[in-house]
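HUMAN: Ready with one sample?

ASSISTANT:
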Amino acid sequence: MSRIGKMPVAIPKGVQVAIQGNTVKVNGPRGELSRTFSPTMQIEMKDGQVVVQRPSDERAVRALHGTTRALIRNMVAGVSEGFSKVLQIEGVGYRAEMKGKQLVMALGYSHPVEVDPPPGIAFAVDDKTKTITISGIDKELVGQVASDVRKWRPPEPYKGKGLRYLGEHVRRKAGKAGKVG
């Protein structure tokens, strides 16, 4: 049996979970999330915890078991604590600033790059540490928006300039070594 799938999801104070068939709605202090899962999974409340059970040991059903439990856990964590990703800006002349809710970045192009946040996502910029914080309650959406922002200027291997995740290691290349003076 799946080690992840068989663990119950604890529900913290202030969070309500409503299960209707295969649709799970989670409501908490930061907002509300809803998701429809596969009808093969059996999702139920027991003793103030959400329990996911699988009907058989078929390969596809086993794969869904742990995934379903992890998605429910992320929904509960999102509405109670929230999620965030931090991008670091490396490079001379590269910078970011906020114009209202819009993120405006100077990334070496001839024009500024403007990114509007989708609903449920907030940007924050710290000028001292040159970081962009992307936060929200939906873990999947936070990761996707962070990836989309990073795609504007991914880190390059020669000088390391670009946008990188906080703590990301960029493998550096030597460059031209054939110069003989």
